[in-house]
Amino acid sequence: MALQWMILAYVVAAEAAVAIILTLPSPKAIKSRITSLVSLVLQPSLFIIPFSAFQLLDIYWKNEHRLMCSGETCTAAERDRYEKSTYKAQRNAVLCVSACLLYWCIYRICKYHRDIQSMEEVEKSYKEE
Question: Which InterPro entries does the UniProt record give (predicted)?
Answer without folding.
Answer: Ald_DH_CS_CYS, BAP29/BAP31, BAP29/BAP31_N
